[in-house]
What we know:
It contains 7 helices and no strands. By secondary structure, the chain is mainly alpha-helical. Helix 1 (2-21) runs antiparallel to helix 2. The longest helix has 23 residues, at 52-74.
Amino acid sequence: MLWLEENRKKIIVNELLHWKKSRMLPDHYCDYLLALYTEGSQPKGIKKRKNTVVLYLANLILLLLIPISALLIYFTELSITLQTVILILFISSDIFFIFYFSKKVKMIHIPIISGALILLMGSVDIVSVLYPGNERILYVSLVINCVLWLFSGLKWKFLYLWISGALGFLLLVISIFV
Length: 178
């Protein structure tokens, strides 16, 4: 009889682990039920939660990269080469955290937004410095950014990216013809 009870608990724990992994229930419900069925001991299949403070600190740093990029571009006299290298490093860190946070859907938005805005500011600055007074190349750069946002929004199913790309494209069309 004891063997049957242990087998039943093992099945329930495995099912709860599956629910937690596939996000069928919120994490805190699964954690509560797992603690209940395992009598407080942690089952083998559960990975310990990573330090959320580190995750929030990474998001804060990624958010701070946006104003730092604006300061580098508009308020310093760094060469365009050095600015480009720094912005590439910032965008690379955003891409790294996009892949790092890809399993944590709630956490992926900050690196995407930060990367998109830094890419926009960087591309506008590079085009403005390399081709001063040439509005066509600037518009092409802005259209490429908007198309990237549109396709990223459609691919990842993030409405804010899709709306940003569509509104940016609409504003570009209006500014070209007005």
